[in-house]
Design brief:
Elements (H helix, E strand, L loop, with lengths): L2 H8 L6 H14 L2 H23 L31 H36 L2 H15 L3 H12 L3 H28 L2 H8 L4 H9 L4 H24 L11 H8 L8 H28 L1 H7 L1
Helix pairs in contact: 3-4, 3-12, 4-5, 4-7, 4-10, 4-12, 5-7, 6-7, 7-10, 10-11, 10-12, 11-12
Length: 300
């Protein structure tokens, strides 16, 4: 048998393992309904929150006495509140505030929590134990109560609200990062890098940290949805965003006296909060399935 015949009998060259893994991952992503639906909802929120205020600047706080509690339809697509302010524009501005507070608070928690979690997992045992005991004290307080304490110390406001929610989320991010880093530290590629003489910082920054971010990313996407509820709750009781700045929680608070005669005053911000929370939750659930190696094995 000649060499060409041997090549024909052997068949075409097999696909590289890296390409196969990438194909499985993309196929799982394409069939991930939770991630797809969540991404669509978040896209709607971003489109409404960013684009609509650009076309109708200042309309969210403009008072029209003649349109007080106007029903949905006409120039007020979602109706008007007790001061005649357009509910659609106010919901769009509320989206901007909620997105800014939720993304900012989660970014703050990640910025502080990821390095603290890495130190707690890879540093000296006594240091890791000390860090976790301090965080256990913070986690002993309910999230809403801890946020209220921070707001009571620094005063209400959007930036203070961002700081308060970031502090509430810090222990959660640290614990998730520490658990993921401890698990990654047991992998064979980390042992191989350590055997080749890799320094502590090279081992942490090049090997442990990049391979431990999956659970943290999933947790961050879920915390985004929870932060929307926390921001709305604090604004509802008057400790968050202050008027006349529109906020979804504040709109619920000021419109509850008119919900029997004009239900759209509370239905509009309520549904808006539901869409945001559902979008972030579905994205987090989809990312968890996509990043889970067991799910990838099933997809094969």
């Amino acid at each position: 048998m000649t060499l060409p015949e041997l090549e024909t009998a052997a068949g075409p060259p097999s696909e590289p393992p890296t390409a196969r893994r990438r194909g499985f991952s993309l196929r799982l992503l394409a069939h991930n309904k939770s991630l797809t639906v969540g991404a669509i909802l978040i896209f709607i929120v971003l489109a409404v929150g960013i684009l609509l205020p650009l076309f109708r600047p200042g309309e969210a706080t403009a008072v029209h006495a003649g349109a007080s509690l106007a029903a949905p339809g006409g120039s007020n697509l979602l109706g008007a509140d007790q001061f005649g302010r357009d509910m659609l524009t106010r919901v769009a501005e509320g989206y901007r505030i909620s997105l800014a507070v939720s993304c900012g608070s989660v970014a703050l928690a990640l910025l502080l929590g990821v390095p603290i979690g890495l130190v707690a997992a890879t540093g000296a045992p006594w240091l890791g134990s000390l860090i976790m005991r301090v965080l256990d004290v913070l986690m002993a307080f309910p999230a809403l109560l801890l946020a209220i304490v921070v707001v009571a110390i620094f005063g209400p406001g959007t930036l203070v609200l961002l700081l308060a929610i970031g502090i509430v989320y810090l222990p959660i991010v640290v614990r998730v990062m520490r658990a993921a880093a401890l698990e990654t530290s047991k992998e064979s590629f980390v042992d191989a890098a350590r055997a080749r003489g890799a320094t502590y910082w090279r081992l942490v920054l090049r090997h442990i940290a990049p391979n431990s971010m999956g659970p943290v990313i999933v947790q961050a996407s879920i915390l985004l949805g929870v932060s929307v509820l926390l921001e709305a709750a604090l604004s509802f009781i008057g400790l968050g965003v202050q008027p006349p700045t529109p906020s979804l929680g504040l709109m619920l608070s000021t419109g509850r006296d008119f919900m029997s005669s004009s239900p759209w005053v509370v239905a509009d911000p309520g549904v808006a909060i539901l869409i945001m929370v559902a979008g972030f939750t579905l994205v987090g659930d989809g990312l968890r399935d996509w990043l889970d190696p067991r799910k990838r094995a099933i997809a094969r």
